[in-house]
Each structure stands twice: as C-alpha cells, then as structure tokens.
Amino acid sequence: MSLIDLKNISFGYPNCGLVLSNLDFKVEEGEKIALLGGNGAGKTTLFYIILGLLAPISGTVELFGKRCIKENDFSGPRKRMGLLFQDPDDQLFSPSVIEDVSFGPLNLGMNRKEALEISRYWLERLGILHLEKRVPYELSGGEKKLVALASVLSMGPDVLLLDEPMAGLEERAVERFLSVLKDESFKAFVVITHMPRLLEGEITRALFLERGRLSPGPSC
Amino acid sequence: MTCEHMAKGESLLHRADPRVKIIVALLLSLEVVFLSSLTPLFLALVSAAFMLLSTRIDTRLLLKRLLVVNIFVVLLWLIIPFSTPGSALFTLGPFTLTSTGLLLCLVITLKCNAIVMFNISLLSTSTVFALAHALDHLKVPSVLVQLFFFSWRYLHVLEEEYTRIKRAAVLRGFRPGTNLFTYRTYANILGTLFVRSYDRGQRVYWAMVCRGFDGTFWLLQHFRLRGMDFLLMSFVALLATSLLFIQWRS
Amino acid sequence: MHISEGVLSVPVLAAGAAITVAGLAVGIKKVPPKELPKVALLTAAFFVASLVHVPIGPSNAHLVLNGLLGVLLGWAAFPAIFIGLVLQAVLFQFGGLTTLGVNTANMATPAIVFGLIARRFLRLERPTFSALIAGLAGGISVLGSGLLVAISLGLSGDSFSLVSRLIFTAHVPIALVEAFITGFSVRFLLRVRPEMVGCTTPLRKEESAKQTLNAALVALIAFLMIVPQSAQAHRVNLFAWFDGENIVGRAYYSNGRPAVEAALKVKKEGFRECFRLKTDKEGRFSFKPKGPGNYELVLEAGQGHIAKAVVKIKPVTASRSSKGNGSAQSKADAKAAFFEEKEKPPKEDSVIKGVPGSIKKCQDMEKTLDRLLRRQLEPIRRELEALAMSQSRVTLKDVISGLGYIFGIVGIWAYLLSRRGK
Predict the structure, then answer these.
(1) How confident is the model at residue C98 (pLDDT cuts 50, 70, 90)?
(2) Of the candidates B156, B207, B218, which has its C-beta nearest A91's C-beta?
(3) What are the sequence ranges of the domains in chain C?
(4) What is the distance between the alpha carbons of residues B210 and A107, in angstroms, rounded to a whole number?
(5) Per-residue pLDDT at C236 exceeds 60
(6) Distance from C-alpha of A170 to C-alpha of A151, rounded to nearest angstrom
(7) Higher model confidence: residue C40 or residue C218?
(8) Of the candidates C4, C39, C192, which has its C-beta nearest B147's C-beta?
(9) What's the CA gap between A179 and A169, in Å, rounded?
(10) B-chain residues within 8 Å CB-CB of A103?
(11) Do residues C123 and C26 touch, judged by C-beta distance below 8 A?
(12) The CATH fold of domain C236-393
C-alpha cells in the first residue's frame, strides 16, 4: 500500500494556465524524497493537492490506500500527515508557543496534560523550550520556523510534507532539524528545498518538478 | 505603534482578573454616561484619575493618549458654547456665548475623560489575548471572539507587509500628492495588501484544518478570582453607588 | 469618523447599540468557520488601511474604506467593522466603547447597503464599468456614514446642529478621494483575485439575465425615490401681485436662486393674444397692465419648469379707467389695448381734458396715495415673497427623509436577496 498515490493530476490557477499536467506521484513507505524545481513550478501546489486543500481538475488522489475525493475523506489522513507551510506566520496563531504546539495534539483528542507533555518534548528536541511562554509573532523568522516545525511534529505524523523547512535557519538549528529527520518514527517524508546538498545522505530519491511534470532529479 | 506597552506592568490593576475588569469597565462607563450633574462627574473624573495613576503607566504615554481623545472635545468647545440656545454671557459679532453651552461642554469633557481614563486603567492593563480569553469566558459569541483574536494576531504581520510594499513604491520614486496617480498607487498598494491578506486567511484556515481543527477553540489559559479582584469589585461598587446617590440628590 | 465618549445622549447610544446587535446577529451567521480567518485577515487589513494617510489638498485624511469592505464582505462587514472599532478603541482610544453601537451602525449600514448593491453590478469582463460602480459605492458609503454621524449628533441635542453640519461637510472631500481609491482598488482586485469581489467565472446566460433584471429593479426603485425629490428641489416659483399701478413680481427656484432672464407669458382672460417679457438679473419683473381683469402669468424657466400665477385686478372708479374696455376690441388693438410695456405718461390727461380742477386734484391725491401705499407695502410684499420662498425650499429634513426611504427599501431588498443568494 502506497502512502501517497497521485495519478494523472492536472491543476491550474484561473488565468494562469496549467501548473500541473498529467502528473503521477507515488510515495512508498521508507522513502525520503527531495522535491526540487524552479520558483513557481508548482511544488507547494502539489502539497496542497495531496492534502485535499485544492481540488485537481482531473486525476485521482489516494492516501494510505484509500481514494480521497470529498473533504471528509481527507480529514483522517490529514491527522497522519504533517504539512509544514512555507511561511510560519500562516501556521502559528496562538498567543503562546506552547499553546500553538499543543493545538494539534488537542485536536487529536489528547487531554491537556498529555498535550502539554508532548509539546514540551518536541520543543526540547528542537532546542527551543526556552521560548515556551513567548508570543509567536514576536519571534525571529528562524525561531518561528522551528516552532512551526514543533507544532507539526507534536502530532506524531507518519508522513512529513515540509515546504522549505531550512530557509532562514542558522547552522545549529539546521543540525537539530536534520537530527529530527533521522528519527525512525516517520514512515516517509517529502521535502521541498532549494538546498538539496544539506540533505545529502538523508534522501533516497530526488524529483524535479518542471512544466507540470515530475522527472527524476540528480541522484544524491 | 500597536505594541502593548501599557499592558506591561505589575500594578494591582495589571494583575487583576480581566473578566472582572471588563465587567467593571462596562459598568462604570455606562454609569458615567447617565450622569448629568457636575458634582458626581467631578468625583468620577477624580476616581478615574486615581485608578489611572495607580497603574503607574508612563505618564508621557498617558498624556499622549488623552491628548488625542481631547482633540474632538476641543473642537466642541469652539462651537457648542456659541450654538446652544440659552442665557447669553457675551456677544462677539454674530456669535453669542451662552452659559448653557459652556455647561454642556464641561459635562462632555468630564464624561469623556472619566470614561477614557477608566477604560485605560482597566482594559489597557491586560493584553489583547487575555481580553479575548476573558470575553470568551464571559460568553461573548465565539465568532466575535475569534475574529478579535485573529485580527489582532495578524495585525502586526500586515502592518509590516504594508510598510514593505509602501517602501518599495517610495524607493521607486513615489511621492504622494493630491492627484489621481497617487490615489491609484495607494489603491494598488492597498489592493496588494488585501489580496495577500485574503490568501493568507485561506492558508491559515488550511493550516488549522491540517492540524485537525474542527471548529472548537481550546483555551489553555484559565482565570482564577483572587483577593485583589474582590477588592477591586468592592471599590467599584462603592464608587458606583456613591455616584448614583449624588446624582439623585442634585 | 468615530464619535468619542460622553458626547451622545443615552437614547442615541441605545438605538445605535440595538441596530448593531441586530446587524451582528445577521453578520455572524455569514461567517462560517471556513471563512473566519479570511474575514479576520481582511478586518486586520482594513485596520491597517485606516491608518494610512492620503493627501487631500493641503492636509491629509485617514481612509475609511467602509464601502470597499461592504463590497468584499457583504453582511460580514458588520462584525468586521465592529471588531475593527473595538481594536481602535482598546488600542488607541479612538472612538469609544460606549459609542461602539452607534459608530458601528453608522459605518456598517451604508457599507453593507451600497456594497451589496455594487457587488451585483461587478463584472469580470467589464473592469472600467465595475470600477465606476465600486467607486460610486465607496463615495456614497462615506457620505452616508457622514450623514449618519451628523444625524446621531443632531438627535443628541439642538446644540449639536452646527457641529453636525460641519462634520458632514468635512466628509464630502474625503468621500471623493475614497470613491477614487475604492474604484481603483476594485479594478485591481478584478484583475488579480476576482473571487474576492464575487466574480469568478463569467456567469451563465440565465443567471446573468436574472442579475441584470434584479439590478434594474433596484435602480428603478432608487430612481423613483430620488426623482420626485429632485423635481421638487428644482421647482420654480412665481410670486406676482398688483401694487396699484403695475403687476410686479419675482421668479425663483426652490433653493432660493432667482430665475434669471426667464420667459414670462402674460395672458389676459378673454383675450387670445399673449404678451411676453423676461425677468431681470434678480428674477424680478414689472409691467403696467391696462384695465381690470384676470391676468394669467406663466413662467417658463427652461428644462420644462413652469410656474403659473394669476393676478386679479378689480375694476376701480371710472376716472381712472384707461382707454378702451376689455371686450369690444379688434385683434389688432388687443395687445395695445390691455398691455403697456413701459410706464407711459399717464393717458388720463387726454381723457380728462377739460375736466374741472377739483376732479384733477382728486386724481393727484389718489396718485400720491398709491405711491405712498406702494412704498409702505413694498417691505411687506418682500416678506411675503421670502416666506413663500422658504416654505418651498427643500430642507435637510426632506433630504434625510428621502434618503431614509432609499436606505430602508434598498436595505430590505438587499437583506432578502442575500438570504436567498447564499
């Protein structure tokens, strides 16, 4: 059973022509994929389609072996996938870091105590526990990114979809992030990045998105 | 500009329960609106000033705020004493100054400043987030609280975005003037801001949905009533009753 | 413009609060969880926009942009504006908390009414026309708000009438600038994110026809409301009387402006011929009628404005009757018979040649009396003129009641439509 199986996907924004055309994308368990491509190629759009935030013009989306068509079909898989948005401000909206990171676990049904525990664990893992009580919008860009990452990881997803996770991070933060990626608890991850060399050694496959289609990228 | 300078402090009012403060602020403001005699109004103003000073907020900041509020009041002072019918005090050409007009202006000034001072001392001493949580506890419709919450959250982001877009225009030679080109440029800048806000609103919703959001907001911050809250409530109750009593007597 | 604390009377505050509560109740239903972040973000955007200074002449003005918010959000503009005002009150002490109800009602009501109407007319394929409509909505919304602010102040006490008039006047230049900015903004949005203004794909033909019909209906209703008012406002009035010697008078419009060089047609009852003259630069006229009778004056002031007046002159003593009677006249003499354009030297001399001196002295006395009376009655005549003028003038009250009709009917229609639409 593939974790993600997209077949023949086409999508275009109004007045922009097709961004994705007859695209196939499959992610199996154990895969670690780097998604590369020029600006505006449609990489973020592909993530949105995987999670059902945008509906494709044609093609099918299968997540964890099940066809997903309506909004309801996606709600289960969404809880098992962690999408890190490109702009952390889109993701953080609570008045404190700890509240933001516990948002996911609470929605998963954990009680307050469990949610706080797991949030603190991930903040510690990423080295930002000292930011626990801070207000997210007062943090620096890099700090915000780490908090956003923590808020995705705290849900314990099986699959990670990360949109430029290392942009704006300093060296120590990148190290922490990579050490988390090495964690076996993820079944697979797909990372959109412009710096594939940083992920050298972690990636099993690289894909290039160009003119609406995916092609194998330079081998890592 | 939209930083919460005044909410940072350690005074009694800063530490009081925001739910109590909201109710008290509402009560006092409404009461002052009903007052019409000078004595209770003066008393209200003095009490409000006392509360404001007890917060130990930077005086310069307070004066700046009060100045802004009183600009409209000054405007009224220039017009109303001359446009109110009543017993004339003196005449300057076609303008007649009446004592009724002066009295009305005084009443308005006292009311306005008393209410504003009460509000600053009670509401500006808590963060907007705390106030939003308090409103939710006070059973204000959830949609309004969430709107309040999210608007505040993204205010700074949007302020920055606007500054960036405007700066980009200025760096390319834009000089605002009273002409159509200026208005069109502002329309484009604001239009860009609106579009970005709209798109961001969409993404924020998606981000919440991706983390399993189903409409319920979880509040981790819960309030507890403490001794100083009861102190505040008793002080206000005393003040409110005295004001009403004095008003009724005069 | 927001009104600060402590100014308005309690009834006005209460009425404003009631309207706001009702508006919020409807508006909240229009903000499902899916739309909430978008509405919140737009509320924040408007807050930022309202802090923008735009140059107007020698100074600057803060933008209001409530019209644009109405176009973008429809009924959701009520909670959006409400929250925006709460933020302004809490952060800057702009406006106030006791005045939240009134301020929200003043800003949101025109925004929603005109925003919803304008939205119906916006078309993806007609950007300039859409921009014009949006600009109109933007400008009128600001004027509407200004009017409501003025009314709120005016209703709080007579002392505020001058202030309220000043405040409304101050809104006029701002409304103009906002009209431009709103129009340009909508044009921008149509190109970049048309779904924000409700234009996605070009409408199907039937939908488009229905929408056009709706729009035409609204326009018709609005027109019907405005036209009688404006016709009233431009009515021309004719005031004429006989002062013993001449028929004098004045022609003026309802707003007091004189009807300059307007054509006046005078017809005496029983005669077919008409005499024409023109009013002078002050709208006044004067001519000497010959003989008693009913004189019908018809003023034609251009653009189809007509006013009529009838001056009845009673027959006087025989010594004063002019040459010739009314009835037994040939056509050629008719005009000369009953009109005299200028003050000719009194013809009485030719008639009364040879009459004894005592009768002449009588006539002199009468002439003097006439002149004296005319002088005395002249100021009274002018007063009556002024009274008649002021009674026909359109006052602010009339304008407000007219607007009230428009608001009311259009508001009800917009509400019903928006309920059906969603």
Answers:
(1) very high
(2) B207
(3) 10-202, 236-393
(4) 10
(5) yes
(6) 19
(7) C40
(8) C39
(9) 14
(10) 208, 211, 213, 218
(11) no
(12) Immunoglobulin-like (2.60.40)
**Helices B18-34/C10-29 angle, 10° precision:** 140
Q: Chain B contacts of A151, Cβ < 8 Å? A: 211
Of the candidates C300, C279, C290, C286, the one whose C-alpha atom is nearest the C-alpha of residue C335 is: C290
Confidence (pTM) = 0.69
From A95's Cα to the closest Cα of chain B, the distance in A is 6
Residues 6+ apart with CB under 8 A from C337: C290, C291, C323, C324, C326, C329
ipTM of this complex: 0.91
Q: Which chain B residues touch A90 with a CB distance below 8 Å?
A: 200, 203-204, 206-207
Bridge partner residues of C53 (DSSP):
C62
**Position B231, amino acid:** L
Per-residue pLDDT tens digits for B22-75: 999 999 999 999 988 888 999 999 999 999 999 888 888 889 889 888 888 888
* Contacts with B153 from chain A: Cβ below 8 Å: 93, 95, 137
d(CA B209, CA A179): 28
**Considering only alpha carbons, which residue of chain C is nearest residue A93?**
C37
Residue B156 in tokens: 């700074």
pLDDT per position as a tens digit, C135-191: 999 999 999 999 999 999 988 887 888 888 888 998 999 999 999 999 999 998 988
A14 at interface of C, judged by CB pairs closer than 8 A: yes
Show the beta-strand stretches assigned E in chain B: 88-92, 95-98
User: For residue C78, what is the nearest residue in chain B, using CA coordinates?
Assistant: B144
What's the CATH number for C10-202? 1.10.1760.20
Question: Cβ separation of A104 and B214 shorter than 8 Å?
Answer: no
Decide if B128 contacts C90 (C-beta within 8 A).
yes
Q: Are C81 and C100 in contact (CB under 8 A)?
A: no
Q: How far is CA C26 from CA C38, C99, C419, C422, in A?
A: 18, 20, 10, 13
Report yes or no: B200 at the A interface, CB cutoff 8 Å.
yes
Chain B interface test: which of A86, A90, A102, A110 (most B C-beta within 10 Å): A90
Taking the C-alpha atoms of residue C110 and residue C410, their distance in angstroms, rounded to an integer, is: 11
Chains that touch B (3 or more CB pairs under 8 A): A, C
Domain A4-216: CATH architecture, name and number where available:
3-Layer(aba) Sandwich (3.40)
Smallest CA-to-CA distance from B187 within A23, C189, C199, C176 is with C189
